[in-house]
Amino acid sequence: MRHEVSPLPTHAASIVQLQEADDIEIRQVFEQGQTANSGLRSPFDALPFATLIADDAECTRFVANRKACEALGLAPGIDGSLVLTQADMELRVRFLRNGREIPFHELPMRVAAAEGTTVSDVELDVRLQSGRLCKWLMFAGPLFDENQKPRGAVGAFVDITERSRETEALRFITDAGKVVFLSLDSHTALERIAQITVPRLADWCAVDLIQPDGSLRSEVVLHSDPNKTELARELRAYPTDPDQERGAPQVTRTGASELYPEISEAMLAESAVDERHLKLLTSVGFTSAMVVALRARGRSFGAMTFISAESGRRYDEKDVVLAEELALRAALAYDNALLYERQHRVADELQQALLPSELPQMAGLRFDAAYLPSTQETAVGGDWYDAFPLPDGRIAFSIGDVVGHGLAAAIIMGEIRHTFRVAALEQGATPARVLTRANEVMALHSDEPMAAAIFGVIDPKTLALTYATAGHPPPVLAGPDGAAVVCPHGGVMLGAPQSGTPCEWEMGLQPGSLLVLYTDGILEHSRDLIAAETLLLQAAALERTSASSNHAKALMRRTLRGVEHKDDVAVLTLRVDKDRAVF
């Protein structure tokens, strides 16, 4: 009698043959497995992959062919097969998915027998009795009785541990490459590499960095169980002998990785500093470890330690290769972050040095300014503000923002500010002419920098104000009537291919008014620029009547409180006292 079955994938065709076998043929397979005295290689033994047959619906008894026996660590009978009970199977192997043990009734063969359906391409982690962790690709199909009711199942599995390992390693390195270079903060770069390492490669990961005196400092410690992270940190806090001939000190000296496939109690005792230390080491439950150097571009930064504990994973040479590749990426990211931090520090110091330490003040007039670096890991943006007296008694002022970031932007900013000061002293200089002179200077640069800017002058006696803009956000004027308005503006940025002649505007300030100049970082914290501008107008109106010691700083607080601004911000304000007389 032949039995109808659901089709299996083509690479499991031998299972179909077994499913289609006569009932007596299946019985013979069990008899061969029980007697194991034929001395002949059976067709069951000749199947090209590990195969199991369960001859009852509950799958309480299996017969395994030679390849299945080898996979389970068992010696097959003479004919190459062996009969096992469910208890034998549960003793020999544990099936896991995402670290959780799978109950027997959820296994593919049991599902196939219970539901009469084919189960294909199931990948399961398998923990063998020997402690080895591997991955099997499993297939199962039902066997039917004469009434077409499921009465058992036939299943097969292929060990895909190496293939899965190579795929996971490639995915792991790819993911690590995406993550570690996202941060320009050196500590964060190392933290992120530890986060992607745990638990995919290790139960806990530690990074030690070389200090100026040659000692090692524990920089990052991360455990897969957050409750055990503090325990791991306490362990790493124990002093390390810099002359120690193994572990992180040795690896940082030689650059040669160390592999400990099995960590014995004797090794822990040898490493312990005192009884407390030994107790902590023992409680962690080390099973295996790797230590690799953190090196890049010919420099040694320290070492990374990968430890297996709860998972029971045993490291081998292939794991070391993966760890070394990961450490290289971590070291490159760390070195890049250090370089960025140095450049950022130099640029920031230059930026601060190029901004005026004092602003001119006159009776009834008050300039205030504020500068705020970005809250994100971007470089200094080249924002500036300035105000200085002219020989005729007027006061010149400017504000602007160089396109780009970092040291180059800060240098261009300083050059523009200096050009403004020089051009303002020329005979017959006007705000528009000053911007034109700055544009001519910027045209001399081969890298074609650009900048948005406002330059203006005010007569302290008459409060007559003249200003010109070059692609810069408009000034805001809060008048004595309580309303804040946007002032005229226009023009093309300095350094643009077709900048044209800047336009000038004139106005007279009134006593009790507040003029606000700002860079675009104060608006670009919001995707809704109209809402951001409305908030700025409201802040200017409120600040006009406030008693703030620095109107620019106070206006920043009103508009940026609790906001993550992606760009630097500069603000320059000019306040006219309400009792100021106009001559």
Describe it.
With about 575 residues, this protein is an alpha+beta fold. The chain folds into three domains: about 10-160, PAS domain (Beta-Lactamase, 2-Layer Sandwich); about 165-345, Beta-Lactamase; about 355-575, PPM-type phosphatase domain (Phosphatase 2c, domain 1, 4-Layer Sandwich). Helix content is about 35%, strand content about 25%. The protein has 16 helices and 23 strands. The protein has helices at about 15-20, 25-35, 65-70, 85-90, 110-115, 160-180, 185-195, 225-235, 250-255, 265-270, 275-285, 315-355, 405-425, 430-440, 530-545, 550-560; strands at about 50-55, 60-65, 80-85, 95, 100, 120-130, 135-145, 150-160, 205-210, 215-225, 260, 290-295, 300-310, 365-370, 385-390, 395-400, 450-460, 465-470, 475-480, 485, 505-510, 515-520, 570-575. Strands 3-2-1-8-7-6-4-5 form an eight-stranded antiparallel β-sheet, with helices on both faces. A five-stranded antiparallel β-sheet has the order 10-9-13-12-11, with helices on both faces.
Summarize the structure.
By secondary structure, this protein is α+β, with helices and mostly antiparallel strands. The protein has helices at residues 13-19, 23-35, 66-72, 86-92, 108-115, 161-180, 186-197, 226-236, 248-254, 265-271, 275-284, 317-354, 406-423, 431-442, 529-544, 551-560; strands at residues 50-54, 61-64, 82-85, 93-97, 100-101, 119-128, 133-144, 150-159, 204-210, 216-223, 258-260, 288-296, 299-308, 365-372, 383-389, 395-402, 451-458, 464-470, 476-478, 484-486, 504-508, 514-518, 569-576.
